[in-house]
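README, section 4: Worked example with a bound small molecule

Sections 1 through 3 covered apo chains. Here we extend the same pipeline to holo records, where the ligand is supplied as SMILES alongside the sequence. The molecule in this example is coenzyme A. Nothing else about the input changes; the structure line simply encodes the ligand pose together with the chain.
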Amino acid sequence: MDALVLIEDACPTAPQWSAVQLAGDLESERARLIVLEEGGRVEGFAALLVVPPGAEITSIVIRRESQGRGLGRALLAHVMEEARSLGCGRLSLEVSASNAAALALYASAGFKAVGRRPKYYDDGADAVLMDLDLAP
Ligand SMILES: CC(C)(COP(=O)(O)OP(=O)(O)OC[C@H]1O[C@@H](n2cnc3c(N)ncnc32)[C@H](O)[C@@H]1OP(=O)(O)O)[C@@H](O)C(=O)NCCC(=O)NCCS
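The generated complex, written as structure tokens:
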């Protein structure tokens, strides 16, 4: 849990959940924490909230120094697979309109923008709501 929080802390665009909140995910029937490890080191994680018939990605973050080498894409593919295996037909998320890397990742995975919350974030950026149809 400490490793996950340290990874988050180093990424200003990541949602800043506390260790207690993340630990709550382990207790909850509806939540999944998916941790990506490489060579025994935690490289990133994603948090998924399962609300049938869909699921929401509440966080996805890759260790800062490991970004840009395909790990985020691999982690997202795993999250999509997990949601499918749980019977979810739709995956949704919310991302800052100023987060170019995340927007590009989601768009290339097939997510479509379905809404916008103006000036949602502290820095004044809009939130973009995105959905992915998981139906085969
Ligand atoms: C968003 C994030 C998870 C992507 O993970 P990553 O491992 O860096 O991404 P990948 O190397 O797998 O790249 C996947 C795609 O993301 C996009 N991308 C990644 N870095 C990018 C950058 N700096 N600028 C623009 N697009 C970028 C590209 O579309 C890329 O595909 P390509 O390599 O075919 O061009 C990662 O940058 C991160 O942890 N950011 C901080 C936390 C965060 O903002 N999370 C999202 C909150 S909604």
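What to look for in the output: The radius of gyration is 14 Å. The beta strands are 31-38, 41-51, 54-62, 90-96, 112-117, 127-133.

Section 5 describes how to batch many such records.
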